[in-house]
Amino acid sequence: MAEETESGATLLAKKEYARAVPLLKREHEKYPSNPRIRLQYADALAGAGQLDDAATQYEATAKYYDDNGLTVQSIAVRKKAEKVQEQLAKNAPAPSTAGKSEPLFNRSVPASPLFEVLTTDEREAVVREMELEQFDEGSVIISEGEAGTAMYVIVSGEVKVYTRGTGNTGSVYLAKLGEGDFFGEVSVLTGKPRTATITASRPTELLRLDKTKLDGALANHPGIRRVLDDFYKKRAKHTVEAMIENLKKRGA
Fold it and tell me: I need a surface site. Which of 25, 83, 197, 200 has the fewest CB within 10 A?
């Protein structure tokens, strides 16, 4: 009886994929237009090794996000789908056209404030280098003082920003960031150490862009640097660094 009280989402969080699949399938059939449930169903299918079905559900979820202009979410789903596609390719016999590789979704990345001023080639170069990461509640994502090796975009969840206070005040809470926000770009662009510690305040998914991979994209597409610099300047008053500077001025 206890098993029946557990939801598909709970079983998915416990990584009990085989048990989660039928429950999430029923939820998806009941609420077919809910992308969150469809994505959970796809994750359970992938975890249970039902890769073909998982790929189908990921594709449908990505299409929903594409159609609604939810760029960050669509990229994240593509990253999950790519891993499924890689597994399917490993299990499949070698194709006759060796050396050719097709993306799972043959559609351009939809426009968004972060990507809209990049050309198609520049946008695809950045997205191609991003990696999807998951953090549990309380996990430290970046630490103040460390070298900036990556920037992040929040797909889902929430993070909290802290910095060292003056004197003996300990850590000072600055802000929380949510879906669609990004952070860490200043250290990546300037080479300066991290100026804050950022932790996941609940289970969180992020898209990570490593500095080394960004540098590689910049070598082939120098216009990306100009776009990132311009974007940073336009939102300079709202960056973590600006929060810290205001804190210092108040003498905290």
Answer: 83
Strands 197-200 and 182-183 turn out to be unpaired
* Position with higher pLDDT, 72 vs 166: 72
Check: CB of residue 74 under 8 Å from CB of residue 180.
Answer: no
Instruction: Decide: 132 and 207 in contact? Cβ < 8 Å.
Output: yes
Residue 80 burial (C-beta neighbours within 10 Å; 0-12, 13-18, 19+): buried
> Per residue in 178-235, pLDDT tens?
887 888 888 888 888 988 899 999 999 999 999 999 888 888 888 888 887 777 676 5
Q: pTM for this structure? A: 0.71
Q: What angle do CA 168, 170, 172 make, to 5 degrees?
A: 125
DSSP lists the bridge partners of residue 175 as 161
State the Cα–Cα distance between residues 224 and 98, nearest whole angstrom. Answer: 32
CA pair distance 188, 109, nearest whole angstrom: 23
Distance of CA 185 to the CA centre of its chain: 14
- Nearest by Cα to 187 from 209, 165, 206, 172: 209
- Joined together, the tokens standing for residue 4 give 């029946």
Cβ partners under 8 Å of residue 20, min gap 6: 8, 9, 11, 12, 40, 44, 47, 48
Q: Residue 167: is its pLDDT beyond 80? A: no
